[in-house]
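Q: Predict the assembly, please.
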Amino acid sequence: MKTSRYCATQLIALLVLAGCGGSGDQAVRSPEADAVSVSNMVAEFDRCAREGDLEAFLSHVMDDVVWMPPGEPAVVGKQAVREWYANFYGTFDIELTHDVLETHTFGDAVIARGNAAQTLTPKAGGSPMSLSAKFILVFRRQPKGPLKVWRAIANANTPPPGG
Amino acid sequence: MKTSRYCATQLIALLVLAGCGGSGDQAVRSPEADAVSVSNMVAEFDRCAREGDLEAFLSHVMDDVVWMPPGEPAVVGKQAVREWYANFYGTFDIELTHDVLETHTFGDAVIARGNAAQTLTPKAGGSPMSLSAKFILVFRRQPKGPLKVWRAIANANTPPPGG
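A: Predicted assembly structure:
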């Protein structure tokens, strides 16, 4: 009885030391868990784009984010990114599918690379435009465990029309 | 005498433990030293582009590099990157200037972001083409200390002509 109580105390201490205090912090610190988190997050980004859910999307973005879209200068900071995506979501009906090819963890940074298929239909009318792109996303681990987008860059897999 | 010999042995042991065996390995492990290394390396990339020095450029590239140029699919692996750059250096006279805006160290990975100004003049004749681009470079620390390019992606800061 005493032994099992001692073991239970030890187990709790170990769980606390390991950061398994119910918040799941430890789980997201393994590369495998980071890969799952990234996979789930980009699927959520695709849903946000489809449904125009700007606030849900921005909840995964750091304050000092830098988004580097093709064909224009870098968009620096969450407020500028908010305005960029408000315009993007407002201008197009968006079908977006991220395909993560690799995820690597370096301490508190996680780098993901992949392709994205995108079809944009102007809300004001006009033909849908399809684009195959590739991307690098860099996430940073937040103090309580979850990853958020810190740097993002994409470009096309095909030459521009007429280019 | 005996004490000083003991101290010298200890000192050597500490230097070996710290990786200060004369190769300067330890120096490149600080974020400040990484930033200097990256700055020097991209200046060397600019020289390589200007002089068509393919081998010097490739000496800074990892075997499992992925180069993600705009307008075409990812170029995967050093052999494919060699062929891409042999074609690039062979087709154009290149003026290239990297401007690193930030460098961050995450253990053995170093992420650099910046802009690059590029003027390409076709060797076969034709007008020079100027491009302002932005980039993310991810370097990995090699076993003996130096950083090498592991992932690279760039895109234009302006829309494509006619696009």
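Chain A is about 35% helix and 40% strand. The longest helix of chain A spans residues 31-51.
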